[in-house]
Amino acid sequence: MSDTTISSAAFADTKPHYELLDGLRGVAALLVVFYHIFEGLSFAAGGTTITTINHGYLAVDFFFILSGFVIGYAYDDRLGKTLTTGNFFKRRLIRLHPMIVMGALLGTIAFFLQGSVQWDGKQVATSMVMLSLLCTLFFIPALPGAGYEVRGNGEMFPLNGPSWSLFFEYIGNILYALFIHRLSNKALTVLVALLGIGLAGFTLFDVSGYDMIGVGWTLDGVNFLGGFLRMLFPFSLGMLLSRNFKPVQTKGAFWICSVVLLVLFCVPYIKVDASPISLNGLFEIVCIGLVFPTLVRLGASGKTTDKRSTQLCKFLGDISYPLYAVHYPVMYLFYAWLIDNQLYTFAEIWPMAIVVYFGSIILAYLCLKLYDEPVRKWLSRR
Question: Around Cβ 382, how many Cβ atoms within 10 Å?
Fold first, then answer.
């Protein structure tokens, strides 16, 4: 979520925030948590298709385009001029890494609470858990099957799975500072077109075999390629959009965009066996390449009109990154509870689902106020 992925909250000090984009980032983060609750039911049932908020994983792609748009807006006219590359990296580390550390620590606690066992019941040595924590703190991804890949799912960051998207976010930030921001508009347009063709081919011809764009979470060749394209195309597209941005005033833009995100994420999987291409992949490419840029443009064009809506968008923006960064350790415990009790339907678990959902939001807010903001202030002063 994005910072994002949800990392798109880094604005230049002297430039105004896009309040509605803050709010939309928060809406997407809330929908991610909702998606992961239903992913748990699928996981408990042996990996069956998710039947509610099916395309919630597209929130990550929305976060990437938001990140590219806002970073381009905040830094394109400063990087290499009034802001050095080194200071840019320091800013990004201060913005991103404290919550990565917190997510890793919470993930470690969650793993110990589950008895330090993989999903298949195999016991994991404490030394391997500590090695996994150390790697996560320094953002070193785990190799599938390695001893420190402690959950046995092949996750890059087994103590906090969604950190994979932040790993690619770091790559995007590095490429932006070293290379992409130097490109002219024409060169950036060509890059975006080439990346779009690459991602379209990857999804339309189902290179991953998933029949969906939910790649990047594990460190194999196909996932790394897919995750790289999945990050860099919307990230670069967001940059291009920020350079050529022309506002389109739309009344109620925040609510319109929020409803569109909800509807898109709830579209069922699109599968036709006789089709020569993945129709689900076609839907995903349309969302990423056409719909999401439109939503970002509408959100950037609008402004909050009263104190209450301004406070709402600020709150959603503030918790978006902490929520994305710390909610999944809670999900690990939730998934284990589902599996242990053999619960497969929402009707059976909705009270616990409500506790998990709002508990994740409260946890994120506490991490924001008691840890993230004070640590970032301290680091900025240093």
Answer: 7
pTM score > 0.85 for this model? Answer: yes
Q: Could you give the 3-state DSSP secondary structure of residue 334?
A: helix
3-state secondary structure 180-225: HHHCCHHHHHHHHHHHHHHHHHHHHCCCCCCCCCCCCCECCHHHHH
Residue of 174, 164, 205, 197 lying closest to 60 (CA atoms) = 164
Contacts of 222 (CB under 8 A, 6+ apart): 207, 208, 209, 215
C-beta of residue 82 within 8 angstroms of C-beta of residue 14? no
**Which residues neighbour 289 within 8 Å (Cβ) at sequence distance 6 or greater?**
196, 200, 233, 237
- φ/ψ (deg, to 5) at 92: -70, -40
Q: Which of 136, 137, 155 is nearest to 145 (CA)?
A: 155
Q: Crossing angle, helix 85-113 and helix 373-381, to 10 degrees? A: 150
Rg (CA), the chain: 20
Q: How does pLDDT run across 303-350, given as a tens digit for each residue?
A: 888 888 899 999 999 999 999 999 999 999 999 999 888 888 888 999
- Assign 347 to helix, strand or coil: helix
Q: Across the chain, which distance is largest between two alpha carbons, in Å?
A: 60
**Structure-token match 């209450």, residue found:** 308
Query: Which tens digit of pLDDT belongs to each residue from 132-166?
Result: 999 999 999 999 999 999 999 999 999 999 999 99
Q: Write out the two tokens for 126.
A: 């404490």
Using a 10 angstrom Cβ sphere, with 0-12 exposed, 13-18 middle and 19 or more buried, the burial of residue 6 is buried
How far apart are alpha carbons 96 and 235 in whole angstroms?
A: 16
Using alpha carbons, select from 98, 141, 136, 139 the residue that is nearest to residue 9.
98
